[in-house]
Amino acid sequence: MRLDKFLKISRLIKRRTIANEACNAGRVMINGKTAKAGSEVKVGDIIEIGFGSKSVKVEVLDIQENVRKDEAKELIKYL
User: Fold this and answer.
1) Domains of the chain and any CATH numbers
2) Where are the alpha helices (DSSP H) in the chain?
3) pLDDT greater than 90 at residue 58
4) Short-list 18, 76, 12, CA closest to 46
5) What is the pLDDT of residues 31-40, one digit of tens each?
6) How far lies 25's CA from each of 4, 18, 45, 70, 72, in Å?
7) pLDDT at 7
8) What is the strand order of the sheet 46-51 is part of?
9) Which residues contact 32 (CB under 8 A, 6 or more apart)?
């Protein structure tokens, strides 16, 4: 699954366009490497997102195309 789509589906970022902009700005990393919006996300990947002075680090536990809001938290684990 594309990185920008995963960030939106997992509710880490509210809109896919904002996820795309964050990737283009170099604020998103997969396994320690800067990632583009089209990068593939796999189960077990570590995603780090920089939000200003704060950063969020999560591990991908599952990948699904469609997920309800209350089930979205099961896709990731905060580190």
Assistant:
1) 3-78 (3.10.290.10)
2) 3-9, 16-24
3) yes
4) 76
5) 999 999 999 9
6) 13, 10, 20, 29, 25
7) 96
8) 33-34, 28-30, 46-51, 54-60, 76-78
9) 46, 48
